[in-house]
Amino acid sequence: MAEKPERTLRVADGIREGKEFERQESAAQEDVSSPDTTLLIEQMIGHENLLSALKRVETNKGSAGIDGMPVTELRAFLGLHWKRIKGEVLVGGYRPTPVRRVEIPKSGGGVRLLGIPTALDRFIQQALLQVLVPIFDPTFSDSSYGFRPGRSAHQAVESARSHVEAGNRWVVDMDLEKFFDRVNHDILMSRVARRVKDKRVLKLIRSFLESGVMLNGVVQIQGEGTPQGGPLSPLLSNILLDELDKELERRGHRFCRYADDCNVYVSSKASGIRVMESLTRFLEGRLKLRVNHLKSAVDRPWNRKFLGYSMTVHFKTRLKVAPSSVKRLKAKLREIFRKGRGRNLRRVIAEVNEATVGWVRYYRLSQVKGVFEELDQWLRRKLRCILWRQWKKRKTRFKKMISLGLDRERARASAGNGRGPWWNSGASHMNAAITVALLGKQGLVSLLDLHRRIA
Asked: What is the model's pTM?
């Protein structure tokens, strides 16, 4: 009986096949687990490791690759095809599919190029990642925080603050130009091979690096880079940049690195300039990476940002939200307000909350609270502006303000003042009509109150 084409498989039809995949792998335990990295591929295809990888990929969801197969169909597909795929993996014959190119705007301008692997390739990468992390992660620097189990951006920011508070009040802020697009495959694979002796695993990793990108229906083979978008890419970036970490440790520097974002903290500007020059030579000579000289700088920490945070100039420095982070949030909210001019206020507020609540949770370490209060005031004024626009006619504005508690004379004078929406949204009559309490009843979350609760 002919197998169904991949893209026509449905989850409802695949329950039996999914169970069959689990049964096959449960019966194949003789092939599993050895701490020896010469037999790492057997660990990778172990039953528990595969099921864990499958659940992780299903939980993460994500877009389909170039084959169009969604994650919801992966389990059924594996039930039908895993025996063949497993054989290819074991003999080193598995060939990944080219990734799908996606462009997303970068916070600082420009676009970030993502490569979206197929659901099957994400599953293989996740299974591989889970056996590689225990080998590499324990050897990484304590000053490396990005994409590591039990580590976070918040820990990196706190560590940066402690370095400044200890007297290192200059920062060498290094920006690597298109890091993920410029990783040298040979250099990276030589670093992986130092700890991984299973040649099938090395071949599999290189095949993912060289799988290519689908652009306008044509596959383009990439001679360098590790495409962002797959589970394996963050670990590979840490493996390569661990050499930078070890060099910084050898020199006795205080630093924090989160993925390709690296800050070195020194006690003087002269020291910072020397460090910048020597690290540039190291990165460009040893690792074949490029330093973006326009974005890199030796400066005071309070003039720079790190992972969206900045610092105050005080001797006992405090964390604060970087101005550029506030600017980006406002730009995102303006899009919501622009679309909300003809919509129900409660729906607009719900969208605003979706954008702001997660933002405040990320910036909960900020010890400067004024920015949250200012944003609250700005949000309320933008919402009042929407209402003033919606009311349109003088008669409507007069009736609305009376219904909201203003006396008739004040409502009449305010309704016909001839001023624009933004002026009226900040005027006393709209503040009296559309109160903080009223907006709270409509569901608006106060950023300042939320920050106080979670800080």
From this structure: 0.85
